[in-house]
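Reminder to self: keep the SMILES exactly as supplied, no canonicalising. Ligand is 2-acetamido-2-deoxy-beta-D-glucopyranose.
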Amino acid sequence: MKHSLFTPLAALLLGGTALACTGFAGVHDHFLPLNGTFAIKNQIPLNSAGYGISHFGKGAYMITDGAYQTLILVSTDGVIVVDAPPTTGRNLQHAIANLTSIPVRYFIYSHSHADHAGAAYLFANQSQPAVTTIAHTNTAAQLATAKDPLRPTPQITFDKTYTLVAGNQTLRLSFPGIGHDLGNILIYAPRQKILMMVDQIYAGWVPFWNLAASLYIPGWIDAHDIILSYDFDIYLGGHMGGAGNRTDVETQKEYVTDLYNNCAEALLESAPGGNPRTDIAKISEKVLGDNPGNVWAQFAVYLDAVAEVCYEKTSEKWLGRLAAQDVFGFSHARTMVSSLRLDYDVLGPNGVRG
Ligand SMILES: *[C@@H]1O[C@H](CO)[C@@H](O)[C@H](O)[C@H]1NC(C)=O
Ligand SMILES: *[C@@H]1O[C@H](CO)[C@@H](O)[C@H](O)[C@H]1NC(C)=O
Ligand SMILES: *[C@@H]1O[C@H](CO)[C@@H](O)[C@H](O)[C@H]1NC(C)=O
Ligand SMILES: *[C@@H]1O[C@H](CO)[C@@H](O)[C@H](O)[C@H]1NC(C)=O
Ligand SMILES: *[C@@H]1O[C@H](CO)[C@@H](O)[C@H](O)[C@H]1NC(C)=O
Ligand SMILES: [Zn+2]
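Structure tokens returned for the bound complex:
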């Protein structure tokens, strides 16, 4: 599958046969079918109201609308809610009221993003009883800047770790450093051995667009090992309608490692005389010839060509193994190429001149 940006230029550069373009940038229906894959089988069924609940035991539940996840812990001192995606919205309140008569007393922000926290006010602004809200210091700063009535600033903040003990339940919160967001935290329920870190691991799927739209890719990559240092049986990544486990974390780590290696190789072989598809001298000559003085144009074509080679190499192993490699795989290659260049100093032909 080719994305639309690259294909016409590739055809030009290679002087040849234009490949069928389904258009990464456009909506189309030519993606691989997911029937029978773990990604689909792992989804729990939704009720007629549009949500489903997994019961993990010892008062721990996941509520999902099929695309987003909320963690619920029922304690003798009130219900603890982690995240309130707007798409699940008021169904969260319905689901909790159907589970227990114990009221919600604690709300935790996994991170600042509106797609996971846009219904936070349903709990944060509850008055009877009042709800204690908790988030990382950086998340609090982001929410203060956002001034979003749907995501009120938290009452309790922490820099490194915070342990919430509520009646018979314990949640350990920990900040691993900047990665997906400025203040994305690990949320660990030791009694149930549940670990939640949102927008980090996607059970059965490649990550969401651009390596989970993360702010700092090295931090997001390092979080894989931090997660694996925990003793957990159930993993919640905040996305899709099914929980994951340790195997899913290891699988995604392998995917990201392959992506890193393939993109590094693609950058290194893009030197003059290297891979003819990404040869920076050939691309510059052609694009600058057609667009005199347009340095950004030659750079854009070059970087996308490198990402394309990385994407194709990665797809050889992962297409069909993790769902939606055909959907988001190119965006991941592009993001990894950029991070390799800027964060990891793998500049290929643009390194220190000899
Ligand atoms: C995929 O699933 C859909 C909906 O359940 C079904 O109609 C279709 O026949 C399935 N296709 C294959 C190839 O199994
Ligand atoms: C804590 O208490 C709640 C409410 O009674 C119960 O549902 C849950 O199973 C208990 N959890 C643990 C870990 O004992
Ligand atoms: C239980 O769930 C249903 C369906 O979402 C909802 O209509 C009903 O109001 C809920 N019950 C309570 C007590 O909230
Ligand atoms: C929630 O409460 C905050 C004050 O804590 C207020 O600024 C905000 O407008 C409220 N949001 C809604 C949706 O009522
Ligand atoms: C994780 O779940 C998958 C699918 O259900 C299973 O095959 C695998 O053995 C599980 N891994 C662990 C460590 O439990
Ligand atoms: Zn996010």
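Points to follow up:
The chain has two domains: 6-30+257-350, 44-244.
The first helix runs from residue 6 to 13.
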